What we know:
- The protein has 695 residues and is of the alpha/beta class.
- Helices cover 47% and strands 8% of the residues.
- The protein has helices at residues 2-6, 14-23, 49-58, 104-129, 166-183, 187-203, 223-229, 232-244, 279-289, 306-311, 321-325, 353-369, 397-407, 424-459, 474-480, 485-490, 506-517, 538-549, 566-576, 588-608, 616-638, 642-658, 671-693; strands spanning 216-221, 249-256, 259-260, 293-299, 374-378, 464-470, 496-500, 526-532, 555-559, 612-614, 663-665.
- The strands form 2 sheets. It has an 8-stranded parallel barrel, surrounded by 6 helices.
- Helix 17 links the parallel strand 7 and strand 8 (526-532).
- Helix 17 (506-517) packs parallel to helix 18.
Amino acid sequence: MRKLAKLGGWCLSGVVISWLLVNAVPARSAMTPPESPSAAMTAPWFSDRTIAQNRTRLGIPQDLDPATLPDFPSRDLNGESRDPADQIAPPGLLVRPGDAPISYFFGIRMEKELDSLVGRYESALFAANAASQPVEVRLPEAGESVATTENKSRPASTELAVVSTPALEAASQLKQDWPDLLATEAYGEARRRWLDVRDALWDEFPLDRPFAQTEIRAMWLDRGSIVRAGSRAGLARLFDNMQTAGINTVFLETLNAGFPIYPSQVAPQQNPLTQGWDPLADAVELAHERNMDLHAWLWIFAAGNLRHNAILAQSDEFLGPSLTANPDWVGYDQAGSPIPLGQTKPFYDPANRELRDYLLRLEAEIITNYDVDGLQLDYIRYPFQDPSDERTYGYGTAARQAFRRQTGVDPIYLTPLVDPWLPRGERDRLHDLWQAWNDFRIEQVTSFVAETSELVRRERPDITLSVAVFAMSEEERLLKIQQDWNTWAEEGLVDWIVLMSYAQDANRFSELITPWVVDQSYDSTLVIPGLRLLNMPVPVMIDQLQTLRDMPATGYALFATDNLDRRLQGILNTTQGQHESLIPQKTPYATASERYQALQREWNWLLTNGLITLQPRLAERWVMEVNAVGASLDALANNPDAATAAAVQLQVQALQRSIGAGLTLDITTTPEYRLGTWKNRLEAINRFLAYGAQR
């Protein structure tokens, strides 16, 4: 095979090769958090004698530094990967200092992004300032002066410090000066002031007090962190850190590169790095002791990992334990390779019935033998392909045979690029066959999701079924990875769509999630945006979190525990509090009520400070409507009922439609942004209500 030829010049044994590779990697690898924990916070690597014995049997050096384990390049990749899972989207708006000209359209984008950042900053500031306000919205007493269209004065007691900050004042001045700066071609000053204002807003986010609303807060606990923890005590420290950071849901990497981390009766082999230990059993108990949800995170159609092979002193020919035992399950690209060019993972053939039954047995084993709260399907797709370059995948034996039975054609002879010189009829025939082949592969993935959904609903209807998916356009996903998660959400096959919407700035992050969080609604299926913490500056993380909070998002997911250093843990603890009791997905009606109370407090604070202007004839009616919705949500939280939830949804929707009528705002950001944010937050409340009605 081709990969074997690449290794022909190697004269060292697999053990020595692995040892050289591991020691060539810096101690702070790509998966190592920016701030490594102290020795007191790190579990002894060989606390479990059985694990040490297994490592000896595998030929893994006993003094291997666990910090080097998680992620180092495969031997034949030179550190490059074309798999979307390894990519982070570049900044959506990259503003550099200097005197370079600012085009008309780029100037508009800079101004729009500044408006959005001001809006996000004010959202956090208002929430932080309103935390101590009463829940019931009220108009100021007779001795106070509520701002109306007839009386726009603020109460005498208002302190301008709570409604204005140096960063907001600088932003307002820049917005006022912006047209002149561009008209006079003062590009250097425009760029400098824009960057200064952005940094000032980031610096003045209220990171010293809580401002986050009640939400799903999930985190992926990766295999590398589990292995480094090494024992129940080490794992407990990770759960303590996540609880302190306010995390309420953990995605535990349970099946990775074909190896389960627990002793399985279905899989051919437990991960050698966890043999003698059952991390899944310990994780379930540790999560429940802290009132957190624990979801088993599974690699579905990715069967192995070259990087994992290097850790285990395996050659690149090793495709994982399941494919080694069942070579008929292997998927291939158009050139006959199980691993696409530039990638690190072999994939199964999703059309193979024996494979599908095996995966379903694994899922059943997990959800019946362990008290998990959820199941997450990852790599629920084909590997990344580029049809425009005729790089495609899915040519396993079972797939080729099944497609040939359906169409009479072996798909290996089809191509996405049809010869334009062929007669039109032949071109159309070949085009239709290629589309049929793509549809066939899409159906293999979707039908497996449906089978898993049926299994979960039958065996454990109380748990959450989620999928980790890409925030790519639907057309691109269907062509390149055959992942039709829109259909899964629309048909209610899954409970959560967890987006791997990894981006380097809030602008790009917003572009990735807006089509799915703002522009679409999937009834009772929730869409949870994901952030990747690796190398992400704290201000960017906070900005992205506030971006999704100003949208109708019901929560977020962070990748991964390995990057939760002490600084991030402290900031998350301060701004969203330690997780104690409420798990939003377990108590969706109570969550909806708490989120609405946060809105009521914000409106109270704005009224008290004269930042809301009401038409006199509408003021009392608006306050009554707002409080009536709050009372209905509170009653629903205390007496959950699906029929009542439907009626409350109608109330929320009516308020959502009327928000802004007879109301104006005296704030720095645009009224459109603030009113849009309130509508989004009401929409998120409705989504929790719809979710609860289906549970």
